[in-house]
Amino acid sequence: MKFSFRFFKTWLLGLSLGLWASTSMAAEQIIVSDPTSASGKRGDTVTLALYYKATDNQLTTGVGFKILFDSSQLDFVSLTPDAEMVDREYLFGATETPESVPLDSDDVDEDATTDKAANIALVSVSGKFPNASLFDEDNRVALGTIVFNISDSATENASTSVNFVKTDAQLDFVAESVVVTVKGDEI
Predict the structure, then answer these.
(1) I want to staple 50 with a disulfide (CB 3.0 to 4.6 A). Which of 9, 30, 143, 170 is the partner?
(2) Would you give the distance in Å from CA 32 to the centre of its chain?
């Protein structure tokens, strides 16, 4: 009898976890930026608003991603989470200062031109990320804003990419990278 009860309890726990996991996964999580491209001269500021979309509008446990860039072309200024993310306590962590931007030593975006990676992670322990009231008219949720300066050493009339890649913690999710091209104008 004791063995049967333990088996039943283990089976019930497995079933519960399976059902919870299946209800907390979006078919596809997408990170988009606005604008999707920008141009400017050395020293100009480039501001990108970051948004989250889920193809089937399923609530999830959160999203985490890296923002990769070429530090010889762009200087990281700040990554500011959207106030709603902070107010609802979704924010788990974000790169805040230029000094805290780690190297992209693992080349996670498979782009040899990027060498630095800012991070942002948003988590809901209840599995209800994001709250339905946060979606805008374009079915997006504002995550935050990242600001770069075009480096004084940036190559004139060249392009560089800002890539968005999911973090390892989000293995259950599909994420699309969005490439943002910043063009250095002739001085």
Answers:
(1) 143
(2) 9
- The dihedrals phi and psi of 159, each to the nearest 5 degrees, come to -115, 155
Q: Which of 53, 115, 49, 105 is nearest to 82 (CA)?
A: 49
Q: What is the pLDDT of residues 146-165, one digit of tens each?
A: 999 999 988 888 888 898 88
Distance of CA 50 to the CA centre of its chain: 8
68 close to 104: Cβ distance less than 8 angstroms: yes
Helices (H) and strands (E) in the chain, counts: 2, 11
- Cα dihedral sign for 95, 98, 104, 110? positive
Q: Please state, in angstroms and rounded to a whole number, the distance separating the CA atoms of residues 29 and 61.
A: 11
Q: Mean pLDDT in the chain?
A: 77
CA-CA distances (angstroms) from residue 136 to 51, 142, 145, 162?
10, 8, 16, 24
Q: What is the pTM of this model?
A: 0.78
Is there a cis peptide before residue 102, judged by omega within 30 degrees of 0? Answer: no
Question: In terms of C-beta distances under 8 Å and separation of at least 24 residues, what long-range contacts does 32-37 make, across chains too?
Answer: 32/140, 32/178, 33/162, 33/164, 33/178, 33/180, 35/180, 36/178, 36/180, 37/180, 37/181, 37/182, 37/183
